[in-house]
Write a structure and sequence with these properties.
Blueprint (H helix, E strand, L loop, with lengths): L6 H31 L21 E4 L3 E4 L6 H34 L4 H15 L3 H12 L10 E3 L2 E4 L2 E4 L1 E4 L3 H17 L4 H18 L3 E4 L2 E3 L2 E3 L2 E3 L1 H27 L3 H9 L4 H31 L11 H12 L2 H34 L2
Antiparallel strand pairs: 1-2, 3-4, 4-5, 5-10, 6-7, 8-9
Helix pairs in contact: 2-3, 2-7, 2-10, 3-7, 4-7, 5-6, 7-9, 8-9, 9-11, 10-11
Length: 373
């Protein structure tokens, strides 16, 4: 049952919010006055000026061209956009990989296998008690930069790992890809709308099969291969991005593992015993009975770890990855617009964090309604 807040509580929250906004406006007004006294007007007009510096990697938007690689002739706002997209790329990949690794380590810590349980404990204690910045240095300088050159790259299942970073198998869309996707979408809508008719159950698979034969192949599978001009084909991931992604994933996964372990331990033992009494094996018990309940408990603290990973991505400057904060440092030093730049960075990180919180909270509400809690 939900209780409506009392008028006194609403008034208190409004006063606190007003005080916070007032303090922020006071600091902003003071900074603008100090800047004006030094002949530096507070303005965002500098964003339309040419940046004049390069980035090692990154895409930006150009009117009439769409997304394309960033160039030094682009403007400051395009440089910020390239940094934002780089931050978003590493944050999204890190969230997915850290969640998968964290759930695996958390489950291993509760395993009946002493080796798996011991390795999980060692991983969590070692990674969680080591500064993230130090781990990034280890991944970049002591691991990736010490790998063999491309000629002697380490290969595993089509994946190449060398001083130049990762080369991964990838897919490339053909001209038939858009028609293929439209065919799948149209078939799905038709199946949903005509599911009551017997003739549709016979005709729609035939239409789908004919369309697939006509539109095949929609994608080409590309594998990295060495040529006279280096490695070509597949997806190339820079060593800076690789080091940052590995560091954020391994570090955050240690905290997620503890969240998962706590959530699993909070499930009453009777749930485990009842599932085993039905003849279910351990994996089925964990996947079907325990994990759905544990996810509901783990989601609130998981939000904190997701936000920490996103904000920790600002340490990318340590490995020369051009994320949003790295771009800000360059822009502030070159243009002198430190206040305007930091306000942009704060607004972007706040927007990303609020977006992640909104998505996870929406899923959390859905889980709570499903379980009736």
């Amino acid at each position: 049952m939900r209780f409506a807040p009392r008028p006194a509580e609403i008034l208190l929250q409004a006063l606190v919010l007003g005080a916070v906004v007032g303090v922020l406006l006071f600091f902003l007004h003071t900074a603008r006055e100090r800047m004006a006294a030094q002949g530096i007007p507070f303005s965002f007009a500098f964003l339309a000026q040419e940046a004049g510096f390069s980035l090692s990697e990154g895409l930006t938007y150009a009117p009439g061209e769409g997304l394309r690689p960033y160039t030094p002739s682009d403007t400051y706002w395009q440089a910020f956009l390239a940094g934002f997209l780089n931050t978003l790329r590493v944050a999204v990949a890190g969230l997915v990989l850290a969640t998968l690794l964290g759930f695996a380590i958390g489950a291993a810590r509760l395993s009946r296998n002493p080796l798996a349980r011991g390795l999980g404990f060692l991983y969590v204690e070692l990674v969680r008690n080591t500064p993230l910045l130090l781990q990034l240095f280890v991944w970049y300088f002591a691991v990736l930069l010490k790998l063999p050159p491309v000629e002697g790259a380490l290969r595993f299942l089509g994946i190449w790992l060398s001083q130049r970073g990762l080369f991964l198998p990838w897919i490339e869309a053909t001209p038939k890809a858009y028609g293929f996707l439209l065919l799948l979408l149209g078939t799905a809508l038709a199946v949903w709308g005509l599911r009551r008719y017997l003739w549709a159950k016979v005709l729609l698979p035939l239409v789908l099969l004919a369309g697939l034969l006509f539109l095949w192949p929609p994608f080409n599978f590309l594998l990295p291969e060495r040529t006279a001009f280096g490695v070509r084909g597949g997806l190339e991931v820079s060593p800076e991005f690789t080091a940052l992604l590995f560091g954020l994933t391994v570090y955050t996964a240690a905290f997620i593992a503890e969240v998962v372990r706590g959530a699993l331990l909070s499930i009453p033992r009777g749930q485990w015993e009842a599932a085993r009494a039905l003849g279910l094996d351990e994996r089925t018990v964990l996947r079907v009975v325990i994990l759905p309940q544990a996810v509901r408990i783990a989601l609130p603290p998981l939000i904190n770890q997701y936000l920490n990973l996103t904000k920790n991505s600002s340490l990318a400057v340590a490995v020369a990855y051009p994320d949003l904060f790295s771009v800000y440092n360059t822009v502030a030093n070159q243009s002198g617009r430190a206040l305007e730049g930091v306000l942009i960075v704060m607004a972007v990180y706040l927007s990303i964090s609020l977006g992640i919180s909104a998505l996870v909270n929406a899923y959390n509400r859905r889980v709570i309604l499903r379980w009736g809690v």
